[in-house]
Amino acid sequence: LRQYYSDLLWSVKTQEGAGYIYVVIEHQSKPEELMAFRMMRYSIAAMQNHLDAGYKELPLVIPMLFYHGCRSPYPYSLCWLDEFAEPAIARKI
Questions:
Q1: What is the domain extent for residue 21?
Q2: Residue 3 included in any domain
Q3: Measured by CB atoms within 10 angstroms of the end CB, which terminus of the chain is less buried, N or C?
């Protein structure tokens, strides 16, 4: 398995306290039917790297897809629940 790394990491302070936000950026020139699942994998990898670095809480992860392909708009859903054989059932459970 290859390692995945977050592209950007910000340390932020809010009224609720300090925290971290990872922004996972993917550039894509060809549409990919399972892109939402791929972006979810990248997000989970960023969370795992954060935990492996010694942090005790999960960071907020914002996945972003920059699509610059010929087909416009992007032809597939970016909600991973839509990628199941039965999306309506997946959404209910």
A1: 8-92
A2: no
A3: N
